[in-house]
Amino acid sequence: MNYRHAYHAGGYTDVVKHAVLALLIERLKAKDTPICVLDTHAGIGRYDLLGEAAQKTGEFRDGIARVLAADARPAALKPYLDVVRTLNRGPAELRWYPGSPRLELALLRTQDRLVLVELHPEDAVDLAKAFAGHAQVKVHAMDGYMALKAFLPPAERRGLVLIDPPYEVTDEFARITRALAGARRRWATGVYAVWYPIKHRAPVAAFHAALKKAGLRNVLIAELLIQPDTDADRLNGCGLAIVNPPWRIESTLTSLFPQLLVCFGAIGRGSVNVTMLIPA
Could you say which of 4, 101, 119, 219 would form a disulfide bridge with 278 (CB–CB 3.0 to 4.6 Å)? Predict the structure, then answer.
């Protein structure tokens, strides 16, 4: 495994992923009963935007930095941005960016539980250190797809699974489809959020077709592109496939994503697509 997320922390794709993640957790918290969040490719707890990796790419400048500098920030971003601000000392400072584990823990209640899985040896050690002493958090150094078999269904019977692999292998979409279909057989009522990159449209279209063929139901697609998806050599956008989307999340994302295009300065060249790929 060579992928290190520190180079991409806080970029526009992180903003999209983490904003949606925060909204999903907030929707699940509408009921008092406990939830479990399983993060299958967790990374580390937080990222230093002044560190060598983040400074080398500067991706955060076109992502979270743009959002925080916007004259009007979408109201739906509040749960997510509150966590970002908490990590930094003041509104004028932006140094630390939350990985999904830090975001998840910040949003969960005391009755909820967080299971973090990371395969990269160094990141798994850092993750365990970052969350040592948190009774409601368990960290496991293992393959994320195996974690779907090991930890589902959770005892709480309510919750969310975030699947966000590094996409280093050519058959990642096929691996996701198989793992997701198996996970849903074990836990049919769970909410699953799969983040995916968008370069050229063809692989994404094939992924969507595979989800349909696998017999999945109730799948919402939410995509944001900052430029047309015609260049296979560059990251043009990202999307999430959300299985069992909570009530009203579709309308929230339909409103939010065009506002994010404004924040990213992508009006006129970017696009959004929020639609039910597979009905319930």
Answer: 219
